[in-house]
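Troubleshooting entry. The earlier prediction with glutamine gave an output that would not parse, so I re-checked the input for stray whitespace and re-submitted. Clean input:
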Amino acid sequence: QRCLTFIKTAKCLNAYITVTEEKALKQAKEADKRYRRGQPLGHLDGVPIAVKDNFSTAGIETTCASKMLKGYIPPYNATMVQKLLDQGAVLMGKTNLDEFAMGSGSTDSIFGPVKNPWSYSRHYRKKLVPSRQLETEDSNWLVTGGSSGGSAAAVSSGTCYAALGSDTGGSTRNPAAHCGVVGLKPTYGLLSRHGLIPLVNSMDVPGILTRSVDDAAIVLGTLAGHDSKDATTVQDQFQSFELPEEIDVSKLCIGIPREYHASGLSRETVALWSRAADLFETAGAKVIEVSLPHTGYSIVCYHVLCNSEVASNMARFDGLEYGHRCEIDYSTEALYAASRREGFNDVVRGRILSGNYFLLKENYEKYFTKAQKVRRLIANDFLQVFSSDVDILLTPTTLSDAAPYVEFIKEDNRTRSAQEDIFTQSVNMAGLPAVTVPAALSDRGLPLGLQFIGRAFCEQQLLMAAKWFE
Ligand code: GLN
């Protein structure tokens, strides 16, 4: 009930596309009865959660924030959604995102941009110097980062305890950092993608957004494991990921990647990063500088691979089999073209075009195959580091704190993704787990996150380091 009230008071954030109020109340009542009988369904019985609107939800509209899927009501639940419901979680609604999860601001949605709850925090308001105040007070509002900005804002504003996001190049970690919450991107293959509408199949993973590392570990425990409907999930059985109260980091070796001293990194982020390294060192951990030499290629490599997979994935939305259908009926080709022109925004259309270009017979070797080779080199950099002493890598999550909307939209989507995802994308290309935790407030009074990257399937160790730091 309280979360529903928060959803109403925080409506101006535009975090939710659909609020499932009636269903939520019914679910909550049932959970309450079970609780009183002492028979909870599972760890999450009665816990309010939200789900990004690119996860299929049976009987609930699933739009990917695109006109293409507006009105689409899936007949089944994504495995992640089903697992949450099986544990008794209460679904509050579906959260806003960049269209088809392409973006890093949650500003490119047909439902309008998501506002960062921190735009209204006293710290930030107090620090707005008069010259920065734009015409109306409200035009100073900040973006959430993206593409899972709705989920991050939903958790950050107290409308739910946990939310599902997706992470292909940073979409869970980036908004989590900007909204001051924890954002976990699990190892590729640990969580099922069944029912998550694909962006880049070889990099997509469901992400978890919560207010604490402990919460993230609990949710991860309920979601992890093999799914016969997703052949890329691993067969191993996973125990719970719950974390001990006392954590000893003195045996850890923390690597600081030299190449992550990127241009555009804010002074305060650098300071925070080195303070964090010092903290680990003081606690007895070994902190060493490491090298990931192919980092510089990751943005361009991601761009080629992402757009190529996008071109192929989006082909299904033709207005006949799937998606928005326009009025034109004089030829099938014209119908395809017009439906896709009307249904997709220009970011999606741009990626489809460039992806198809990379996949042309005469370009395939030059771009796609080459990018796959570079991806291997990027993944090998991590393997090499983790096969030495290093257990965890410590990096910034974003270059700086959240940008005001008016400044953010000055750059186009592609340039922004190229800048914003610099610390996150290579992790997806390597398939590794990573988590961002809120680490400090910037000079403007806004949250800054730090990212921990771990060995594949070593989430427990990764989360322990993150919890110790939290
Ligand atoms: N910003 C990246 C992109 O636009 C990442 C998106 C994501 O992780 N879903 O592709």
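This one parsed fine. The first strand starts at residue 16 and ends at 19.
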